[in-house]
C-alpha cells in the first residue's frame, strides 16, 4: 500500500480549518498530522475534513494550547498517547494504519527564549521532553514506524538561515541539536526529508515578526518526518510546501510531505 503523509503545525485548527481543508483538497495526502491545534478534541471542526474523505482521526487536545491530531482517509487504530516529561500537555498521539505502520505525531516544546534551564523553566522542559522520548524509544524499539511533527529544533547548519548567528538561539543550540540526535539514534530513525534532499538550505518555519518573510527568508527547518530504518528505503518524494506560508492568515509553518511504498 502506497500512501502520502504530511505534517503541519497549524497554529489553531479552529482558526485555520479552511486552510486545512484547502491543503487536503489541493494536495490530497492520505494522512495529515497537525500540531498546535489549540483545541479540545470535541471542538475540532471535523465536518469540512469529513466532506473531503478524511473521516478518521486520532487526537489529543486542550483548550487554547498545544494539541495534536492525525487526520486520515485510511482507517486508524489508536496506538499510544504519552504525557512526555509529565507536563500534562497534549503533545503526542500515535495511530496504526491498516498496513501496520505506526505514526507518532509530536509537538515538542519550543523552549522559551533563553537556552539555560537554570533561568528558563521552559528550556528545561524541552530537554526533559526529549530525554523522555529517548527513553521511550530505547525501551520500546520501534519498527515499521514513522515519527512526524514540529520538533522545534533545526539540527543541521543548512536547516537555518545563518548557523553562526543562531548558535545561541533556542531551536539551534548545540545542546538541543545533540539531544535531538540522541533521540533519533534511540529509535534508529532516519530523517526522510534529508534522505531525499541531502544538501542545501531547507526551511519549514518563518517568523511572523518578519514583515516580508519571503524576501527576508530567515527560516528554520523545525518540522520533520522520520522513519525507522526498516522502512526508510521505501520513502520518497519529500517536499516542503513553502507557498502555503504565504496563504491568507497563515500558520508560520509550512507543511512537510513524504510518500511511502509499503
Write a structural description.
The protein has a 6-stranded mixed beta sheet. Strands 5-6-7-8-12-9 form a 6-stranded mixed beta sheet. The chain has a two-stranded antiparallel ribbon with strand order 10-11. Helix 3 packs parallel to helix 4. It has 6 helices and 14 strands. Strand 7, helix 3 and strand 8 form a beta-alpha-beta unit. The chain is an alpha+beta fold and 262 residues long. It has one domain: Endonuclease/exonuclease/phosphatase (Deoxyribonuclease I, Chain A, 4-Layer Sandwich), CATH 3.60.10.10. Helices cover 22% and strands 26% of the residues.
Topology (elements, then pairings):
Blueprint (H helix, E strand, L loop, with lengths): L1 E8 L7 H11 L3 E5 L11 H5 L4 E5 L7 E5 L4 E4 L11 E5 L5 E6 L13 H19 L5 E6 L23 H13 L2 E3 H5 L8 E2 L6 H4 L2 E2 L2 E6 L6 E6 L15 E6 L1
Helix pairs in contact: 3-4
- In the CATH hierarchy, what is the architecture at level 2? 4-Layer Sandwich
Instruction: Give the CA-CA distance, first to last residue.
Output: 5 Å
Assembly of the depicted chains: single chain
Report the sheet with the most strands, covering strand number, pairing sense and barrel closure: 6 strands, mixed
Helices and strands, in order, run as EHEHEEEEEHEHEHEHEEEE
Strand order of the largest sheet: 3-4-2-1-14-13
